[in-house]
Batch of 3 targets.
Target 1
Amino acid sequence: MLLPFRQLAPSLKNARRVIYADMNQFPGSDGVDFFNVLAFRGVFFGSPFAQSNHYRRFNTYSEWTEFKAQEVKEEKYYVKKNCYGQSQRHRHTDLLKKYWDQRLLWDARFPKPTKPSITEVYKWLTKSNTINGKNVKVLKNIGTLTALLICGDLIEADVLSMPLADEWGRLIHSLDMGAKAAMIDLRLTRENASEVELSNAFVSLDLAVRQELNEGEQAAMRYNVVMLEHALCKIKRLISRGINLDIIREEI
């Protein structure tokens, strides 16, 4: 049986071992855990560094600067600007200082014992402030896709509760990217589907998958709606690369 791939991707596999292994005290002493989450998804993800045995967490900003000085690597070793598809021109290691300065924001917004909903976290991560008439993101380079990925990571790390398919489906509609496009291509929903329509379609798809997989398979895979959304994104990537839809349907 083929096992799921989201949690086994090289960068995320390292992150699970290094920064997500013990998140019981998230966001960590002095916000260090939250800093490392932002650093992983906002800067390091997909880079040679994130995929290497040298990947590590940083407990202070000075640890990072000292590490970088010792490694003597080019910027491209730490940053892959097109890690999520389109190139991100604002993706660079200078963001780490900004993220370090913002490491306490999680605790300020979600003080313990509060356990926020996924939607609350998603909206907060993508928040912008108006400065001199312009919308400026609070967490720079954390866009809608990156925010959803962070939510998924925190769900898998048990920091956030697993959402119902309905809530995750509504976020897929809001994101309006690969998973939604795949559902349209597979004729699971219509192109101009409302939030409710798309969410209902995602709920139905989740139920269909759960009926197809037995309990043992679901347990072995740790199947959940985060995995399903990720699979839809990969299906859309295959479609974009010219793989015939009939072939994809047959393989599914």
Target 2
Amino acid sequence: MRPAIEVGWGVQFTFEKRSNGGRPTQEDVAYSNVDRFEMLPNNVPADWEVGNTYLVQVNKISGDYARVQPYHPQRKDSLRPGYSVEVTITDYATSGVALGAIESWPHIDEVKLYGGAPATPDSVRISAIAPLEGFAVADVNHFTWPAAGSEITVEATQGQSRVMSAAHGYEFPIERQAPISGRARVRVQYRDDQLVGELLSYEEGQPQVGDVVDAELDFQRQPGVAWLPSSGDRVELMESYAVGGDATIRITDASHPLRGELVSLPDSIPEVGAVVEAYARRTDHGEAIARPGDFTGVIQLPDGVEGTGFVRVRITERESVLCGEVVEYLGAPEEGDVLVASVERGNPPNTAVSVVGERDIHLDERVLATGRVEVRVVDAGPPLRGEIVSYGGLLPEEGDEVMAKVSEKGSTAIAEPVHGTCKILVSDAAGYSGLASVEVTDVGKFVRGSMVEELDVEQKRRRASSESPFKHGGDHPNLVQKKH
């Protein structure tokens, strides 16, 4: 097939002879709408000679000839007829015109290849350029387009809606996404002058609904997906097992995406009731999980885990998800051990988290301050239970005078130390709200105190900006006066 030349195109002109009153002429040009090129005698440069080839531009089409004139591109780096360029084929049509993308040429982004397309990427010779339209033309004559209704072999890729001709290496679209990868047969059809294929079958066979096939599970690569070992194609599963290994699946949907359900888990996955050793922890989302040592997978722990460390887990479910419960903590604290743990102020029940091992320690007491404390284990559990034996300087002592911000909470006045995390119940605030000196009168289930002095703004500024808030020094940062 030959292109139809248009006014404005730049082409190569071979000065074959002079005719029609001395006009330079080229016969048998490679275009469908004209037979020859002619140039007016007064447009011929003085140095042009018969037998040479020059660059010209079409300025008129009349009857069976095109009138041309010398062409001088404005840019020296412009794409010109006669150049060879590398193209990447992007689309095809029944007319035998292929579209190819090129790079690095100013004002030209596309090549129209008449007569088909070679394997991509390939080098083609430019026969014409259309600078105003932004495309170039190449004449390709070595390819015959397949007839409508014929069947050809292609290479398909799972999930892609384009296939590649196995014989010629060109790509074209198919009606639906390929369910698996491999060599396949496609029926050729044309729609709106475009080649579109109908996927028929695969050479190695395509899994059908109900087929039971071998597959690989790899939750670390992607949970809820099985991989076919023969092709590497993926099958979306109805279950989201967080395990790895060889399994068998039943195909439930043979289109794209392939879908299936598990028939059998890897042999390494323990049965319900089995006890395995694993490393337990909490995830960033707060879920409790355990990673076993003798198979690949994750065991969900619905009842939680008392910290981070090695445990023994009994499998409780393996139908739709692998679940278990902790039956023993390996290397866990024993009764009587004193652990450093972090706590937050609050009413019971509370939880302390050990600094080492991040184990949860259940507390049945009120926590008076936030920070690190010492906790004695009273029951090794599980669950682990304990009691606070020391606040490690988080609380003032009886008789200490501290600077605090006093405010009323209903019928109760609360003093919050300027430097501290405890709260002091004040019995005689008398409606006062602001900075004050408070004497601690009792440290028990609650911290209690009484008003000593209401502090004005100047005192507040001086005390807050001083290096130490103490009046006479002391061990606690909230201390105003140490008891004697």
Target 3
Amino acid sequence: MSKSIYFKSDDELHTHIYLFYRALFRRKKHLLLKKKSDNSLFFFGAELNSLTILQIISVFFGTVMAAPLMVSKKANKRIIGYIAMTVGCIAAILVQVSAGLYIFILANLYWVLNSMIAIRKNSKLKK
């Protein structure tokens, strides 16, 4: 093995690697929803409160649900996709207001405006 500039010997390097892996695999794996002793729910290690629920809604409606619907060939599905994106952006705006991320609010308002314009255009095409 080549000499390391950070460790004096290979044994010291191997010891640090061993300690790192031991600490890595000793951690407990989190369940999707885990109940703590004080009856509060945890979701992937984060406390499940209203802001966490809004973040989950934002990701689900703004990305997971909206993306496949917005590229659909049918106008009805595209309208549903744009409405889902609007709901996701509004949920993200609520989270960002509570976190004080005011510049990101403007970005989400831009996407809400674009989805409203697209809803209006698609509803005209549908008629």
